[in-house]
Amino acid sequence: MSWQEQIGAACDLDALESIRVELFGKKGYFPAQFAKMKSIPNEEKKAFADGLNKEKAELEAAFEAKKTALEGAALAAEIDKERVDLSLFSHLEPAGAIHPISHTMNEMIEYFTSMNFSLQTGPLVEDDFHNFEALNLPQHHPAREMQDTFYFKDEKLMRTHTSPVQIRYMKAMKPPFRMIAPGAVFRRDYDMTHTPMFHQIEGLVVDEAHKVSFANLKYILEHFLTHFFGDVKVRFRPSFFPFTEPSSEVDISCVFCGGDGCRVCKQTGWIEVLGCGMVDPNVFKAVGYENVSGYAFGMGIERFAMLKHRISDLRAMYEGDLDLLEQFK
Ligand code: PHE
Q1: Are residues 167 and 59 in the same domain?
Q2: Which of 90-94, 102-106, 109-113, 179-183 has the least mean pLDDT?
Q3: Atom of ligand 1 nearest to the CA of 161
């Protein structure tokens, strides 16, 4: 192969560099050729040198051209290798989802805030006064047994319901107002439908005497329940709570059997969903309110979530089982 052909055939810059050394390097072709000058007769020297210089100039030009071409190709290959295809999906991180309990709570909050209820919170660690005493549950009152309380050594306790937020709010504010207080509550309970920590939403409306009636309470709860569950029947049953008088428990027609009777509703066709009533005068007295009227209600968020999503074992909600939670995306 001629030198020109060799340069032309060089497949990369390394190969071209070896050819350069062979041609122009100290021990290469051209130094060797120029060394021959010494032994050439004087009259031939010029022709020989001219021929050699011409050849050298041609090969240098071929070398530079080839080098430029190979460098261009190497750069193009490099760019091609590093190219980012923005239309390709990268490795996708699994997307999270709102927990069904939070989702249900948000939905309930949304309804009541849209009805002009303000959103309130209170401490999870409560004292006897707010959790019981001020709610007309004096010491040794048998109704305290209804709520299996977690006590601390120092008389503090984990709130057993969201009703203490009623007391804190009334002590801090003046009526008229309407508020809800969602949050975690704690009871010593653990089975298919009870966990030691669960959530409630408290509702409280207070205005001047005679302005707030049981009819108002009935209206808002019926409206809320049909908004939340769709086409269900709502029934108010007389009941007892120390902090309301009169008191009522509210049932909806069973969402599983439509009211015909099934295992879930224990063949009654009804499912209890909340407690409510007119605020007991003793509660108003405990917070220093006079000449007012009001209603209150409290509902378990887990119960609403279970009924809406047909979850039969509440405990599963708190085990963090991703396969289960995935279904609520
Ligand atoms: N605090 C009650 C409970 O936990 C619910 C309730 C709230 C009932 C407000 C009446 C009025 O069971």
Answers
A1: no
A2: 90-94
A3: 4
pLDDT score recorded for residue 212: 98
Tell me if 111 is assigned to some domain: yes
Which residue CA neighbors atom 4 of ligand 1 most closely?
Answer: 161
Indicate whether 114 and 23 sit together in one domain. no
Q: Does the Cβ of 275 fall within 6 Å of ligand 1?
A: yes
Q: Which of 243, 249, 283, 299 to mutate to test the pocket of ligand 1 (most atoms within 8 A of CB)?
A: 243
* Candidate of 241, 295, 301 to mutate for ligand 1, largest count of ligand atoms within 8 Å of Cβ: 241
The β-bridge relationship of strands 118-119 and 125-126 is unpaired
Is residue 297 domain-shared with residue 165, that is, in the same domain?
A: yes
Number of domains, the chain: 2
**Is there a domain that residue 72 lies in?**
yes
Q: How far is the CA of 271 from the centre of ligand 1 (A)?
A: 16
The reply to whether 26 falls in a domain is yes
- Residue 135: domain span: 100-328
CB 275 within 8 A of CB 241: yes
Asked if 125 and 76 sit in the same domain, the reply is no
pLDDT single digits (tens) 219-267: 999 999 999 999 999 999 999 999 999 999 999 999 999 999 998 899 9
Q: Answer yes or no: is the C-beta of 297 below 6 A from any ligand 1 atom.
A: yes
Residue closest via CA to ligand 1's atom 10 equals 276
Cis peptide bond upstream of 246, omega within 30: yes
32 and 74 assigned to the same domain: yes
Question: Does 248 sit in the ligand 1 pocket, CB within 6 Å?
Answer: no
- Of all protein residues, whose CA lies closest to atom 5 belonging to ligand 1? 298
Q: Which two tokens stand for residue 82?
A: 């590093």
User: 98-147, pLDDT tens digit by residue?
Assistant: 888 999 999 999 999 999 999 999 999 999 999 999 999 988 887 676 66
